[in-house]
Amino acid sequence: MIDNTGPLKGLRILDMSRILAGPTCTQILGDLGADVIKIERPGMGDDTRKWGPPYVKDANGNDTSESAYYLCANRNKRSLTVDITQAEGQELIRKLAGKCDVLIENHKVGGLKKYGLDYDSMKGDFPNLIYCSISGFGQTGPKSHRPGYDFMIQAMGGIMSVTGDPDGSPMKVGVGIADVMCGMYAAISILAAIRHRDQGGSGQHIDLALLDSQAAWLINSGMNYLTSRENQHRLGNAHPNVVPYQVFETSDGCFVLAIGNDTQFRKFCEFVEAPELPNDSRFHTNADRVRNREVLVLIINELTRRFSTQYWLEELEKRQVPCGPVNTIKEVFDDPQVQHREMEITMPHPLSGTDEVSLIGSPVKMSETPVSYRHAPPTLGQHTDEVLEELLGLDETERRELSEQEVI
Predict the structure, then answer these.
(1) Whole-angstrom Cα distance, residue 99 to residue 31?
(2) Helix (H, G, I), strand (E, B) or coil at 255
(3) Are 238 and 164 in contact (CB under 8 A)?
(4) How do residues 5-38 score in pLDDT, each as one tens digit?
(5) Catalytic residue from among 31, 150, 179, 207
(6) Which of 109, 259, 386, 407 is the most exposed place for a label (fewest CB within 10 A)?
């Protein structure tokens, strides 16, 4: 058993979430040392188990039941199957809640009330429980009853209106970023609530909405609107507030130039033998360059097309002009820096034909309380017996009876 070195060691999470936002939150907490008990539907499990291909391959090269999507957000958890539609299953959840510090769920608003597992039904019996609800639109408001999905929230939350080619269609981000960011806000909120409770406060209800968190991470684009009351238009790979800060063409491809200040711009211009550009009134300051971006981008593209991508990356790095390649995902994980930072890890897995699976590592590097990788994403119900015996003291006979009743 790998030692638990994380700062959240001793914290227990009852995870009744599924898909991506909630599981992202609980994987972060699990990596940091929390004991995460993942509640899944018997025989079904988290929806994402079936979101493939690709799937983990067995020894014969055949697909198993574990999708790559499921693996991405379910490390450091123990899977317990419980049918919460049955009274016995509801009682198990309540007993488990009494052994946990946090309960996190992403059922539709009001969906757990009929089972007596909503916050209002549980707060009296568990006053110190931190109860985190994730939904599309929040627990209140005119749209709170609606279900929410990442793609839909990206559209409704404005990010698609500023993403994509200026002459093309609105474009979503290539990963489920609305879900992921909501999961991160959830993790932060839970840690803040734990801090409050540990200083003598009580438990509380955390109400997180995908739409709220999406609006929050519009960041500078959102503030551009609130300041000017003008909509930002799609700029492709360009930046609304900084120029030149986008993809530029080379003789054999492209690269990213990310010039963030006037000094860097001057260094770039001197290197490309265009020292007159910083002195041109159209390009003298960043504000000037933003106003005249179309002209400047044409000029820079003419300059960068003269040499290869590798040339620009090597030469500009020497001169401390920020730039980078447009990597494929393979190139990301082949990058020596990414490898040095251990952003790809392997963990033992019982269904894999190689006896292990590759996972994306945690980006959190802590000197005194490092993250630990203790559990590979669990198979469905893998820890049901273990958890019920450890936390609730149920013996083999009691567990067998629950299994025969299809409660677990």
Answers:
(1) 20
(2) strand
(3) no
(4) 999 999 999 999 999 999 999 999 999 999 999 9
(5) 179
(6) 386
pLDDT tens-digit profile of 233-281?
999 999 999 999 999 999 999 999 999 999 999 999 999 999 999 999 9
Structural domain including 111 reads 12-218+341-404
Q: Where are the alpha helices (DSSP H) in 127-273?
A: 150-156, 177-198, 210-216, 219-228, 262-271
Three-state secondary-structure class, residue 205: strand
Provide the b/e sequence for 56-69 (b: ≥16 CB within 10 Å).
Answer: bbeeeeeebebbbb
* 384 pLDDT tier (thresholds 50, 70, 90): very high
- The confidence band for 214, taking pLDDT boundaries of 50, 70 and 90, is very high
Task: Choose among 87, 14, 80, 18: nearest CA to 49.
Answer: 18
Residue range 349-372, pLDDT digits in tens: 999 999 999 999 999 999 999 999
Residue pair 48/69 in contact by the 8 Å Cβ criterion: yes
- The answer, yes or no, to whether the previous bond of 7 is cis (omega within 30 of 0) is no
DSSP E strand boundaries for 304-353? 323-324, 344-348
Active site (annotated) includes residue 179: yes
The two structure tokens encoding residue 104: 């996190």
The residue among 104, 196, 214 whose CA lies nearest residue 150 is: 214
Q: Which pLDDT belongs to residue 101?
A: 98
**Could you give the CA distance from residue 238 to residue 254 in angstroms, rounded to a whole number?**
14
Q: CA gyration radius for the chain?
A: 25
Beta bridge partners of 248: 255
Question: Is 332 within 8 Å of 175 (Cβ atoms)?
Answer: no
The domain boundary, picked from 266, 294, 326, lies at 326
In terms of residues, how long is the chain?
Answer: 408
Choose one of 296, 326, 356: the last residue of a domain: 326
Residue 200 carries which DSSP code?
Answer: T
Count of the separate structural domains present in the chain:
2
164 and 83 both lie in a single domain: yes
